[in-house]
Amino acid sequence: MSIYDVVIIGSGPGGYVAAIRCAQLGMKTAIIEKYSVLGGTCLNVGCIPSKALLDSSHHYDDAINHFKEHGIDIPGEIKVDLEQMMKRKSDVVAQTSGGVKFLMDKNKVDVYNGIGSFKDATHINIDKTEGGNETIEAKNVIIATGSKPSNLPFIKLDKERVITSTEALKLKEIPTHLVVIGGGVIGLELGQVYRRLGAEVTVVEYLDRIIPTMDSALSKELTKVLKKQGVKFFVSHKVKAVERNGDEVIVKADDKNGKEVEWKGDFCLVSVGRRPFTDGLNADAAGVEIDKRGMITVNEHLQTNVKNIYAIGDVVRGAMLAHKAEEEGTFVAEVIAGQKPHIDYNLIPGVVYTWPEVASVGKTEEELKEAGVNYKEGKFPMRALGRSRASGDTDGFVKILTNADTDEVLGVHMIGARVADLIAEAVAAMEFRASAEDIARMSHAHPTYAEAVKEAALAATGDRALHV
Fold first, then answer.
1. What is the domain class of 162-272 according to CATH?
2. Which of the residues are catalytic?
3. Would you state the CATH architecture of domain 347-460?
């Protein structure tokens, strides 16, 4: 029987990063993955393939709607080759998965393909993909089994016309009318992909606004921009039925006044969040407590109620984000090694990869109001930047919230071109507890989108923005 210092169950961003860090710290490490490829949901049916389709559809949208204004004239009809678009997406996924396998080999991490389940707290049975069983011993175990798409109890997912994000990433035809249930990140990103490709897209959201966990100013601006792009929104609508009739899907909901509303489409994307995936772990055999939602309770060290077993990523509390899982994977590896790592969950950014992109870190204005914090706001529109006008990406803004008494930055909220990358500046500043004045006095290259951060900081320090 093989004996390891650490065994990780699940090879998503949290699991494979934990494996690398454990190996770097000198621990004999193994990782168990039930699928034949590494990378988990994020790499195979989440972050990476969705961004590939977002980029491809963005190029198409530019070609048909914006090339002429740049003096680029393409003779003839511009067509979508959906098969090639999906092939490119699959190639990107395969390259990235291969990269994870390379990293496992490089760091001498043993990879087992199969379903891992506990025999007890230190022994894990592997039901191998190629057949047969094997048991390995682990001094420490990290559960990193991720999440699966959630569903509403009355919806039957046939995965043909009534689909989740997994199926939406590999459609063989462009929908005529895609009805999206849920106005969160995944629904909006995939909705924009197919809207660009010519589909009618209707988003039905239970709450009173889209991206409800982010600052309301971002929600308002993204709604306005996506409406201009042709997406239809119905907020404060409670879906009560989804029926399929041949190639037609009928979605019924009640509006805030209780009046029934109905939409007919050829596809319905159910995008109502994700749930922890702990099925098949046989956690009871190890004594690990899992609640009725499938969530694993952990302490501040991400340790379960069983001393040598840890859990990270989507199976524990907090935002279901790949980069949050990565931070936790590194954290647990260092805890096991006897170090004293740290994660500030308030400073893990959230991003929506629509165009314009949306990014946020720290406290929202709603949270500061609820907490009774005396705050100031600085806001700067992207349209006032030379760089934005040069590229034609003038939608959006940067909003900085500061403590009115100390000037410390408490939250930064952005919508605009490349803000998914730009948010890192805000995270870095807030990690060092910067004031708005600190950011305002930093030199920002001109012309760049990043100048909007400096200008918003100037606005937050006393209405000192220079270019509005």
1. alpha beta
2. 446
3. 2-Layer Sandwich (3.30)
